[in-house]
Design goal:
Layout (H helix, E strand, L loop, with lengths): L15 H8 L5 E5 L5 H12 L18 E5 L2 H17 L3 H5 L5 E4 H11 L11 E2 L2 H20 L5 H7 L4 E2 L3 E2 L1 H13 L9 E3 L6 H17 L5 H18 L8 H9 L11 H23 L2 H22 L2 E2 L1 H14 L1 H7 L5 E4 L7 H10 L7 E5 L13 H10 L5 E4 L1 E2 L4 H12 L15 E2 L15 E7 L9 H20 L7 E5 L5 H10 L3 E4 L9 H14 L4 H10 L7 H7 L1 E3 L6 E3 L2 H7 L10 H16 L5 H11 L2 H6 L2 H22 L6 H14 L9 H7 L2 E6 L8 E7 L11 E6 L2 E6 L27 H28 L2 E10 L10 H10 L9 E5 L7 E7 L7
Parallel strand pairs: 1-10, 1-11, 2-3, 2-9, 4-8, 7-22, 9-10, 12-13, 14-23, 14-25, 15-19, 15-20, 16-19, 20-23
Antiparallel strand pairs: 5-6, 17-18, 21-22, 24-25
Helix pairs in contact: 1-2, 2-3, 5-14, 6-13, 6-29, 8-13, 9-10, 9-12, 11-12, 14-15, 14-16, 18-32, 19-20, 21-22, 21-29, 25-26, 26-28, 28-29
Length: about 900
C-alpha cells in the first residue's frame, strides 16, 4: 500500500487496486468489488482526485467542475452517503467551492437522473413540466383502472371469447395479484417494462410446422426402439398395441390430429414397467409420450397468444393514457423516455454530448439492458468515460428486472488491462470468510452453489473486538425431519427459531451486545416465530426490514382513524375499531353507554348507534362517562370539526398526540419506539398520498386503503443507531434490507427454499426483445420428460416443439432463481463481522433437508458425510477454529 499523498487529495489509505481505480480517469473501467472491499470509499476518492491539481494534463485537474461527474447508485440512501463522503473529502482537501456544489451534483439513483433529464427537457419532449412520479400504490391503482377499462370492453368483444373460455377472466387479490387472463396480461405488460420497445418488443414463440405430427413420429420411433429390445411376453403384450395405435395416429392427416383426438388415443396407452434391461428405453418412450400429449395441448392454445398480446398492448396504451391525463409517470417511464430522448431527440442528444467526463455506476450488477444503453450514451463515444462497479455474487434484485448477465457481458467488452478486482474484505473476520467460501464453493466439490466464486482475502490488519472468546465464531443450527410437501412444518420452523434465539442468547451471555446483532431472513413468512423466540430469551428486538408495515396493528388503527374522518357514521370500519383500539381503549361498559339512551316515555334504555352516542354524550340515567370515553369524545370531535379545513395528515398527527397514544408508545422501550415510528410513518404516507392532490378525508381514506393493498414497505424504526448499537436491540430484517450493512454477530435463516415455477407463461430474451410460450390452463403433466430432450441445437431452436420450449424456458428460469437464492445467501453471510449463526431447517431427503442449496451447504461442511441424528459436534470449514454444529430432529407431528 502506498503512503504518498498525490496533489491535494490523500490517496495513501487506498490499496493498490483501489489506487488504480482512483487514478484511471480517461479510460473505461470494469470493477469487480467483493463484499466489504471498500468500493464506496474508493469511488469518492476517485471523484475528489479527478478535481485535484495533478490529475489531468500539465498538472491541471482532470475535471473542470463537479458538473462533469455522473454517479448512479441503487438507492437514495447510497446517493446521500456518496455525496456526504465526497463533500468531506473535498473539504479536507480545502476545495471549498467544489464542496459547496455537491448538493447539485449528478449523484443519484438511475430514476433520479432520468427525472432530472426529463424535467430539463420536458417541453422539447412534449411532457408536462410539472409531471409527478407516482408511488407504487398510486401506480397500482392507475394500472388497475387501465386493466378494468380494457377487460370490460374485451368481454363484449367476440374476438376475445376463446381467451376467456380457456383461461377465465380471472380475479384480483392484494397479496397474490391477478389470476386468469388478467394475470397473463399483467405478466406480459410487466415483461415489457424493461424493453425500450415496450409490448411491441414481445412476441409469441413460433409454432413449428406439424409439431404434433412430429412429436407422434418421435414417439413412434421410441416405441419401435423399445419393441426391438428383448421383451418378456407381458412387456410385448403392451408395446405391440401401443405401437400400432401410435402408427395409426401418426398416419392421419395433420388437420385431423386435433388435441382431443391425440389425447384420447394416447391416454389409453399402456407401457411396461421401467426396470431391468429395458429401463432406459421405457423411460425414453414415457418422455416422448408426455411431450406428444403436451404438444397437442400447447398447439391448441398457441393461437390465443396473439389475442393476449393484443390485450397487453391495449392495457399498456390505456395505462399510458391515464398517466398522461393525470400528468404523471412511473419509474419505468422515466428510464424508457430518458433513453428515447437522449438517443433519438437531436436537441437533447446535443445537450448531453460530452457533458460528463467521469461516469460511475455503483451496484452495476442490478442494472438491466435498457438502463445500460442509456448510461452508455451519456458516457461518451464507446462509453470511454464509464466506470462500472459491482459484484455478480451480490445480484439479488432479479424480481425487479435486474439482469446479472448485463454485468457479466460488460466485463467481456472492456480490455483486460482495464478490469480491476477489489478482493480484500475489510469487514469480516477470516473465519467468517472461510465459512462463506466453504459454503459457496462446496469446499472445492463439483456441486458448488457458486462455480465462479470470487475469493475474498481477509484484511491483514483486521481489528478484532470479539468478546465471546469461549464460543466458536461459527455456529450452524440444523433442524431436520420429515415434513409436508417437502417443506418444513411450522413446528419445525419454531424449533429452528428457538435454536437461533438460543445461539444469540449464548453470544449475549458471553459478552457480545444485542445491539450489535441482527437476524437476517430470506423470507418473512415466519418472522413472528423468530421474534417471539428472541424476546422469550430476554432480548429486545425490532423489525427494521421486510414487507410487514401494512399489517401492523398500529397501521390498522390509522386506517380506522381515516375512515372516521371520512365518515363519522362509519361504525364498522371506522369508529368501532378506532374506539376499541389501544389509541383509546374503550371497554364493554363504554360501548354499552354509547349504544344506549333513555326512552322518551319510559324510564328504560333503548338502542342507538355508537356514533350518535359519541356525538351527544347523553347517557341512560345521566351516567358519567369514563375518563377514557370523555377523552375520546374530545379528541375525535375536534378532529371531525377540523378536517373540513385542515390537511388530513395534520389532523391525524394531532389525534395520535392528543390521545396520548404516541407518548405511551414512546415510553414502551425499543419495541414501543419501533411502533411509534410506524405511526409517524403512516402519517407521512397519508401526507404523501394527499398533499399533492389536495384530497379531502373521504378520498384520503380510499387512497390509503388502496395503498395498503399494494404497498410493500418495511416497518419504520425510531431506534436508529441508539436503539441498535447503544440500545441493546437485536435487529430483524430481510436479507434485501441488509444490503450494504454490517453486524458484529449475524444470524441467517429462511434462505433455503427451492424455486417452483408453474407460471402460465414462460419467457426468454431473444434478439433484442422477448419471446414467450403460453401454457394451457389444464396442461398434461410433464414430469416424465427427459431433460436431455430440452437442449436443441442453436440452428434448430426455432423449430423446438412448444411444450419442450416451455419446459426449457421454465428450467432456465428455475436455474436463474436458484442461482439468485445462492447469491442471496452470500449477501446474508457476508454481513457478519465477528461471528456468524447459520440456521438450516429442512423437511425431507438426505439428513432431512429438502432444499438443494441447504443440502449443498451441509455437504460442504461435512465433507460429503450427511448429518445423521441429533447432537452437537464440531465441523472443519477451513477456518482457524472449529465450527459448532447442532442438529435437532423434529417430526412433522411435533415430536422431537
Amino acid at each position: 500500500m502506498s503512503e504518498k499523498t498525490v496533489g491535494s487529495v490523500d490517496l495513501s489509505g487506498l490499496n493498490d487496486a483501489q489506487r488504480t481505480i482512483a487514478e484511471t480517469l480517461d479510460a473505461p473501467l470494469f470493477v469487480e468489488a467483493g463484499a466489504g472491499s471498500g468500493k464506496t470509499f474508493t469511488l469518492t476518492r476517485r471523484i475528489a482526485w479527478a478535481l485535484s491539481p495533478g490529475s489531468g494534463e500539465g498538472g491541471k485537474p482532470y475535471l473542470d467542475s463537479l458538473d462533469q461527474v455522473l454517479v448512479i447508485t441503487f438507492t437514495e440512501a447510497a446517493a446521500r452517503e456518496i455525496k456526504e463522503r465526497v463533500r468531506g473529502a473535498l473539504r479536507r482537501a480545502q476545495m471549498s467551492e467544489a464542496a459547496l456544489a455537491v448538493d447539485d451534483a449528478w449523484i443519484s439513483t438511475i430514476h433520479g437522473m432520468c427525472r432530472r433529464i426529463l424535467s430539463r427537457h420536458a417541453l422539447d419532449l412534449g411532457l408536462d413540466p410539472s409531471f409527478e412520479v407516482v408511488a407504487d400504490s398510486r401506480q397500482a391503482a392507475l394500472f388497475d383502472r387501465a386493466m378494468d377499462d380494457v377487460m370490460r370492453a374485451a368481454r363484449r368483444d367476440e374476438a376475445f371469447a376463446p381467451v376467456f373460455a380457456e383461461f377465465d377472466l380471472g380475479t384480483y387479490a392484494p397479496q397474490s395479484g391477478y389470476t386468469g387472463a388478467m394475470g397473463i396480461v399483467e405478466r406480459l405488460v410487466g415483461e415489457a417494462r424493461s424493453l425500450s420497445g415496450g409490448v411491441d418488443a414481445l412476441s409469441p414463440a413460433c409454432v413449428p410446422r406439424d409439431s404434433v405430427a412430429s412429436a407422434l413420429r418421435d414417439l413412434e420411433m421410441r416405441l419401435e426402439e423399445l419393441g426391438a429390445q428383448r421383451l418378456t411376453a407381458s412387456a410385448a403384450e403392451k408395446v405391440a398395441p401401443a405401437l400400432e395405435t401410435v402408427r395409426a395416429l401418426a398416419a392421419r392427416p395433420a388437420r385431423e390430429l386435433t388435441p382431443e383426438v391425440v389425447d384420447v388415443a394416447l391416454a389409453g396407452l399402456s407401457l411396461p414397467q421401467a426396470r431391468g434391461a429395458i429401463k432406459e428405453a421405457v423411460l425414453a418412450v414415457r418422455s416422448a409420450l408426455a411431450l406428444a400429449r403436451a404438444e397437442a395441448s400447447f398447439a391448441r392454445v398457441a393461437p390465443l397468444s396473439g389475442s393476449l398480446l393484443e390485450l397487453a398492448r391495449r392495457v399498456s396504451a390505456r395505462y399510458d393514457e391515464i398517466k398522461r391525463a393525470e400528468s404523471c409517470l412511473d419509474n419505468d417511464d422515466l428510464v424508457r423516455l430518458a433513453l428515447l430522448a437522449v438517443r433519438d431527440n437531436d436537441e437533447v442528444r446535443r445537450d448531453y454530448a460530452g457533458r460528463f467526463r467521469l461516469v460511475m455506476v455503483d451496484e452495476f450488477q442490478d442494472t438491466d439492458e435498457m438502463q445500460l444503453e442509456l448510461i452508455g450514451l451519456l458516457a461518451g463515444e464507446g462509453a470511454r468515460h464509464l466506470c462500472t462497479v459491482g459484484d455478480a455474487q451480490q445480484s439479488i434484485y432479479r424480481f425487479r428486472g435486474a439482469d446479472v448477465s448485463v454485468f457479466r457481458g460488460r466485463g467481456t467488452q472492456v480490455a483486460r488491462e482495464n478490469v480491476v478486482r477489489l478482493d480484500t474484505n475489510y469487514r469480516s473476520h477470516p473465519d467468517v470468510l472461510a465459512l462463506v467460501e466453504r459454503v459457496c464453493t462446496g469446499g472445492g466439490a463439483s456441486g458448488a452453489v457458486m462455480p465462479d466464486f470470487m475469493h475474498l482475502e481477509p484484511n491483514p490488519d483486521y481489528e478484532d473486538d470479539y468478546q465471546a472468546r469461549e464460543l466458536p465464531r461459527i455456529d450452524i443450527e440444523v433442524c431436520a425431519g420429515k415434513g409436508r410437501a417437502g417443506r418444513p412444518s411450522r413446528h419445525q420452523t419454531a424449533t429452528m427459531a428457538a435454536q437461533i434465539a438460543d445461539a444469540l442468547a449464548a453470544y449475549r451471555d458471553a459478552g457480545e451486545r444485542p445491539g450489535d446483532m441482527a437476524l437476517l431472513l430470506g423470507v418473512t413468512t415466519h418472522a413472528d416465530l423468530y421474534i417471539d423466540a428472541i424476546r422469550a430469551r430476554g432480548m429486545e428486538c425490532v423489525v427494521t426490514g421486510g414487507s410487514t408495515f401494512t399489517s401492523t396493528d398500529e397501521v390498522k388503527v390509522m386506517r380506522a382513524l381515516l375512515h372516521v374522518l371520512a365518515n363519522p357514521a362509519d361504525t364498522q370500519s371506522g369508529l368501532f375499531p378506532l374506539l376499541a383500539s389501544e389509541m383509546f381503549g374503550l371497554d364493554a361498559n363504554d360501548f354499552c353507554d354509547l349504544g344506549t339512551r333513555t326512552q322518551e316515555k319510559l324510564d328504560a334504555p333503548t338502542k342507538r348507534s355508537i356514533d350518535r352516542g359519541l356525538a351527544d354524550m347523553e347517557f341512560y340515567r345521566n351516567r358519567t362517562p369514563s375518563a377514557r370515553l370523555a377523552r375520546a369524545h374530545e379528541v375525535i370531535s375536534r378532529a371531525i370539526d377540523e378536517v373540513g379545513w385542515r390537511p388530513v395528515a395534520d389532523v391525524c398527527a394531532d389525534v395520535v398526540r392528543d390521545s396520548g397514544w404516541l407518548a405511551r408508545l414512546e415510553r414502551g422501550g425499543a419495541e414501543g419506539l419501533a411502533r411509534a415510528a410506524n405511526v409517524l410513518a403512516a402519517v407521512r404516507y397519508v401526507r404523501d398520498l394527499t398533499s399533492d392532490l389536495g384530497l379531502g378525508p373521504a378520498r384520503a381514506a380510499t387512497e390509503f386503503d388502496l395503498w395498503l393493498a399494494a404497498a410493500k414497505v418495511p416497518p419504520a424504526s425510531l431506534a436508529g443507531a441508539e436503539g441498535g448499537s447503544g440500545g441493546g436491540t437485536v435487529r430483524v430484517m430481510t436479507v434485501h434490507a441488509s444490503k450494504g450493512l454490517e453486524f458484529g454477530v449475524c444470524a441467517v435463516a429462511e434462505c433455503w427454499g427451492n424455486p417452483r415455477s408453474e407460471a402460465q407463461l414462460a419467457v426468454g430474451a431473444e434478439s433484442g426483445g422477448k419471446r414467450f410460450v403460453l401454457r394451457p390452463k389444464e396442461a398434461p403433466k410433464l414430469d416424465d420428460v427427459d431433460p436431455e430432450e430440452l437442449v436443441p441445437s442453436a440452428d434448430k431452436s426455432a423449430q423446438m416443439p412448444l411444450a419442450a420450449r416451455y419446459l426449457a424456458l421454465r428450467a432456465a428460469n428455475d436455474e436463474a432463481e436458484a442461482h439468485e437464492k445462492a447469491r442471496l445467501l452470500y449477501v446474508a453471510l457476508t454481513r457478519a463481522c465477528r461471528a456468524l449463526i447459520v440456521g438450516v431447517a429442512g423437511a425431507s431427503g438426505k439428513a432431512g433437508v429438502s432444499s438443494a442449496l441447504a443440502a449443498s451447504a451441509l455437504d460442504a461442511l461435512s465433507d460429503g458425510a450427511w448429518v445423521e441424528g441429533a447432537g452437537v459436534r464440531s465441523v472443519d470449514y477451513g477456518g482457524s477454529g472449529p465450527a459448532r454444529l447442532r442438529c435437532v430432529i423434529v417430526e412433522d407431528q411435533g415430536r422431537g
